[in-house]
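Supplementary Note 3. Input sequence used for the single-chain structure prediction.
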Amino acid sequence: MKRVTARLVLPLLLILGGCAGEQATTEPASVRQTPSSEGHSIEYSVHGDGPLGIVLIHGWLEDRSFWRQQIPVLAEHQTVIAIDLLGHGGSAAQRTDRSSWSIDAFAKDLIAVVEQIPNEQLVLVGHSMGGQVALAAAPRLHSRVLGVVGVDSLHNAEMVVSAEGWDPIMALYREDFAATCQRFVGSMFPHATEDPNLPEWVRGKMCGSNPEVAIAVAERFPLIDQRALFQAAQLPIRCINSPLTLPTEAEINRRYADYDVRSVDGAGHFLMLERPTEFNLLLAETIEELTGS
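The predicted structure, written as discrete structure tokens, is reproduced below.
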């Protein structure tokens, strides 16, 4: 299995999560809350009322506003459910005593929300860490899920984050979370963005997060078994990735799942915000492939 060394671990911490600029969506049709399996309140919003449910899952230190360029477009014809995982966005005003800040725990947050949604067919769309959360949740939602769409996520089923490379990164975040975050966020924008305010907005969102929660989540990244997530999903996995972050190993991924990938050239990790028109077209084509309509 491919191991991620210290040289690759530095950008990977942000590749597993991120943020986005000032909200451009209109007021959500419905903001709701539901208890998690541990009794914490999980906030989510529901937009539109179409037959297909499209569930949007953000990454590490993000929130549902990252999907502001996609929600109004998708909601024209489908039901869109945008979740704030515990410790993020509208679900952040919680104590930090959850038993585990693992991918599995976030998957349970997602399942708690989906159980409140009546749509019989769903597509799970996850950015960065959200792709792994979607894969972890999908088998427990049975036949309701038609497929998982990773957004700059799920690059390599055989990728392993080495603890030896990860520990020095965690030490930097524990020593000075804000300054370390500021440095690494900048590396996620390899080119100038169409919205010149986007990088600074990203820094504000991500680096203003609760350091205790941020570090608790990131400390568990070396424990993620991506190969097991791919194998357990037992459904189509489609990705829309940037070639400028991590290489997508499509042939490796096809050893474990029904997998395919589309690319957005010239964008960094936050491709759905950097190149929303192109991204939305690719997402529509991907959903059409998964649903047949």
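Confidence is low (pLDDT under 50) at residues 1-23. The chain has one domain: 3-22+51-120+130-291.
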